[in-house]
């Protein structure tokens, strides 16, 4: 192929082959950036091949997410055993020491068998932010790769994973002086528990979006004020890397020459090709009704035994923390349990079976709603391949293992393992509308008598 004629002939054949493949197979995907033309030169061919080689040589990182109760931790553990991997937790509650039951933290035996990162690194009185997670998780990833192991990031905190994959906004970090000043400005409001007045204060300072924060989220309110005082602009003024990637992908997708070439299985690869790692992302889920049942039973399991979530909530209260006052006490399960125990203490350690079942129902409902929000969030995260958690674990493991080792960048999930993102049928939608928990452990007053005795002995 040394002569110009030979090169032109070869390029013409390649272009003709690509056009034929497209018309014979509508899902065949190619874009002008990879398409050879009659006027192609040796340098352009080399550039294209170099780009492919660079992508192929990227270091691989596996990400496993899914709604609460879907089985992420078990899948990550078994996968780490096969791949000589280490697990980075992307769970906003597992970072806290002592919060084991409510966060479904992997037991110590599993953590001894496979190294786990970002578990038990903070006291519950400390706050932990998505920016801190980004720094910690990225450093952990680098360390794992440098040790010759495979990073497996597992968890369901959507914003943690989005920043981890795409990068964090370039928001200025407040100096100690500005941070202290912002804290002093909000201190009176917080001491008097005047959340609404504090919000209006920050709105007038320049961030109207704080009106949509969860009540008593003092950390994010204070952080917004710090950013305003540091830069003169609210957090929303700073570019979010994910939005840039999404806009770039949408612009590629809308090009006339690309219409019809973006298959469902290829979306993630197109979106992630400009990222610094080769992220192989999976979302493990199951049909909504089955998921809700598993969540309800899981909430029950967290209340059984002498060392359940109520015991952990009691510990939080005894150290002087209040529900919904910081990252740990805002967590689903802990907030409801702390509020229930405060009510019991106000009643001299007494609780009726009705009060207990009201608490349990609220705990279950909050957990189901959280799972619903997770499904909505990750439905819009195009980089994830959805897997059916109801399929045999061995089949799911084999697929992810083979995907990790394959040379091609295009991941195609077999039909047997695919999980639909939307509600499967009208029947399922109708059943969801009238869904109510069917408890497995706590069915009548007798089943909760041990818990009521524990409350009487410890909360009186």
From TrEMBL:
Q: Which Gene3D superfamilies match?
A: 1.10.20.140, P-loop containing nucleotide triphosphate hydrolases
What are the recorded Gene Ontology BP terms? Answer: cytokinin biosynthetic process; tRNA modification
Gene Ontology MF terms = ATP binding; tRNA dimethylallyltransferase activity
- Superkingdom of this entry's organism? Eukaryota
| EC code | 2.5.1.75
Q: Where is the signal peptide?
A: none
Q: Which reaction does it catalyse?
A: adenosine(37) in tRNA + dimethylallyl diphosphate = N(6)-dimethylallyladenosine(37) in tRNA + diphosphate
- Enumerate the cofactors the protein uses: Mg(2+)
The reply to whether Transmembrane helix figures as a keyword in the UniProt entry is no
> InterPro entries, from UniProt?
Dimethylallyltransferase (IPR039657), IPT (IPR018022), P-loop_NTPase (IPR027417)
Tell me if rRNA-binding is a UniProt keyword of this record: no
Name of the top EC class for this enzyme: transferase
Q: Keywords on this record? A: ATP-binding, Cytokinin biosynthesis, Magnesium, Nucleotide-binding, Transferase, tRNA processing
Write down the HAMAP family for this protein, in alphabetical order: IPP_trans (MF_00185)
Q: Belongs to which family?
A: Belongs to the IPP transferase family.
What name has this protein been given in UniProt? tRNA dimethylallyltransferase
User: Source organism lineage?
Assistant: Eukaryota, Viridiplantae, Streptophyta, Embryophyta, Tracheophyta
